[in-house]
């Protein structure tokens, strides 16, 4: 038993070390020797847990995905109104990208993984499915206009968030991501909100951004 | 003179070879030996023109940027209405991404270049500036609502396009990019179009997509 726990701790340390090394140098330019140094484990221990660099990258993507999806799950389970949940989750993912090395490494690897032999489309497909659920709930709440193409909206919100974080990363190392998300939602809401709910919802993005800043520990 | 022309041809062949090698294996995983093999030049010739792998990547990004920006320039010079030009340029960039190896390699490198010592933000900043010009022209044309935040709209269109092409690349190797762009514009237009122009412009994305397919050689 203790041995099994030790093995799990080593595996977690390797994933953290690899995330740090990949974030610093980029995936392709990082050697497994650099990963074992960053993780503080021997190369033997590294190979015991992961048989290739790609296996390590996939483990980081999985860890990131689990963490990000659980934030979405929480909003769904807590009966937050659909449109508010859809807006909120983008600020929460932005926070994870800024504060959590596993998340930022995982998201970057997902984008760089086009050349992987393991398909990484599950991350996007799961997010598109979660966004569909938020949009559908938003329609049921009366906040989202019922004529909206739910699948198209879910796909575009996922893609738009991806682009906002990529551009924010290149231009400001994600320093401006909250402000850029508020701009994104300000431009997107007119195509989503039911006309009779417009007056109540038009400043939802600013409200969510302000509440999140106020709630910071 | 012929020697200078030969040198330019060698340089162009190296850029093409490097683009192909980077697209196939990813930037970080490609060695300079693989680049010289793909380009059909000696390692000596490669080092004569580029003193590092990063210098090669920056040359590809520059070549892609020149090609993409000239498409935007053409729309601006031909007095195409601003909103139509803004919509059109996204489909034209999508075409370049599908058909032109230098463009797809350059765009991918721009995203992966966060760890470069050379800043690559110029690509995004130039596109944001071009989009600003399109949006401002759209306001002058009466197509875009004058209360829109021009800078925010330009930034978001640039980011949204980036995300749409990244997600389309991961999910379908860009096979669905035109359809995803039409969905993006369908969701974005209500936040951009002046109410009195809505009836004329609401199907602009489908019209542009159809015209481009019809015009294909």
From TrEMBL, chains A, B:
Q: Which residues bind DNA?
A: 31-50
Keyword check for DNA-binding, yes or no.
Answer: yes
GO MF annotations in UniProt: DNA binding
Q: Which SUPFAM superfamilies match?
A: Homeodomain-like, Tetracyclin repressor-like, C-terminal domain
Q: Which InterPro entries match?
A: ArpA-like, CprB_TetR_C, DNA-bd_HTH_TetR-type_CS, Homeodomain-like_sf, HTH_TetR, Tet_transcr_reg_TetR-rel_C_sf
One Pfam annotation, family name? TetR_N
Q: What residues does the HTH tetR-type domain cover?
A: 8-68
Q: List UniProt keywords, sorted A-Z.
A: DNA-binding, Transcription, Transcription regulation
Query: Where, by residue number, does the polypeptide cross the bilayer?
Result: none
Protein name, UniProt field: TetR/AcrR family transcriptional regulator
């Amino acid at each position: 038993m203790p041995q099994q726990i030790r093995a799990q701790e080593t595996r977690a340390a390797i994933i953290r070390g690899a995330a740090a090394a990949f974030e610093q140098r980029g995936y392709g330019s990082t050697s497994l020797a650099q990963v074992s140094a960053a993780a503080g484990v021997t190369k033997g221990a590294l190979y015991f847990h992961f048989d290739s660099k790609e296996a390590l990258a996939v483990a980081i993507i999985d860890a990131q995905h689990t963490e990000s999806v659980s934030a979405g799950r929480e909003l769904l389970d807590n009966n937050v109104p659909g449109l508010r949940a859809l807006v909120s989750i983008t600020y929460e993912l932005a926070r994870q990208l800024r504060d959590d090395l596993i998340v930022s490494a995982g998201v970057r690897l997902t984008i760089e993984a086009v050349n992987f032999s393991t398909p990484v489309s599950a991350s996007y497909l799961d997010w598109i499915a979660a966004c569909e659920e938020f949009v559908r709930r938003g329609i049921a709440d009366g906040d989202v206009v019922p004529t909206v193409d739910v699948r198209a909206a879910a796909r575009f919100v996922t893609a738009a968030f991806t682009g906002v974080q990529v551009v924010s990363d290149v231009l400001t190392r994600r320093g401006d991501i909250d402000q850029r998300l508020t701009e994104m939602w300000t431009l997107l809401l007119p195509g989503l909100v039911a006309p009779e709910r417009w007056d109540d919802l038009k400043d939802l993005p600013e409200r969510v951004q302000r509440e999140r800043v106020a709630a910071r520990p």
